Amino acid sequence: MAAQYVDVSMIRRNPDQPRKTFDSAALEDLRQSIERHGVLQPICVRKIESGYEIVSGERRWRAARSAGLKQIPATIKEELDDTASLELAIVENVQREDLDALEKARGYQALMDRVGLTQEGVAERVGLKRSSVANHLRLLDLPKDAQEALTKGLISMGHARALLSLKGEKEILGALGQVVRKDLSVRETEQLTKASEPASTASGSGGSVGAVSSKEMAPAAPWVHEIEGQLRETLGVKVTLKNGKKYRGSITLDYANRDELERIVALIAPKKTL
């Protein structure tokens, strides 16, 4: 279906959009690119009474609107109900690696709740193994603070899976605090959770020493966080950048399984195979 130019003002975001977070630095980069080159890939919309609703491509729409564009190229789906729109939005975003782990999990759960798919059905639609879908869905069992740490890239999906082996919110948050403070690797986190040592409590406070404070969760420098965010958005895994004197340092990528490793290798070195 050929793309058409649609007035930006006639387009609204999809309230069921599986993607909930948008990196401000990445959006600014996209805005600048659109100002120079225009929107190179059409967004996908469906016709509604008041105009059009985004199925996929909200980042491009946001950036185009910020860049002052009056129109944007779009592929229009004439007959697409709410359920079909949700399914297409999730599938396209997952295939484009545009969602973080929790957004994928919520999207998979929505497909099961709204479309009536099983885990096997979801896996077939998005082109993944059922075990991968199941592992993502387990992330929804994490306490809110742990989910926030995962979204911010403070822990990876591998860390999250290790934390889920603990029983109870207090134990998970206590271990999370240690993981963040000590910058533990996935393997070290697995060893920590296997030890099953309860987090000690602060004297007279009743709170966990391991609880993650807002100060601990703040990045060391804004530009470090921005670069980590851009890499995380591209690669879909936790990225840790450590910068030393004269800009000598290291970049660490965390992956949870062979599937994630193969995907990272395919993105960085497409011709390489394991």
UniProtKB/TrEMBL annotation:
GO terms for biological process: chromosome segregation. Residues 190-212 are annotated as: Disordered. InterPro entries: Chromosome_partition/occlusion (IPR050336), HTH_ParB/Spo0J (IPR041468), ParB/RepB/Spo0J (IPR004437), ParB/Sulfiredoxin_sf (IPR036086), ParB_dimer_C (IPR057240), ParB_N (IPR003115). One of its GO terms (molecular function) is DNA binding. The keyword DNA-binding applies. PANTHER family: CHROMOSOME-PARTITIONING PROTEIN PARB-RELATED. Belongs to the ParB family. This is Chromosome-partitioning protein Spo0J. The lineage of its organism: Bacteria, Pseudomonadati, Planctomycetota, Planctomycetia, Planctomycetia incertae sedis.
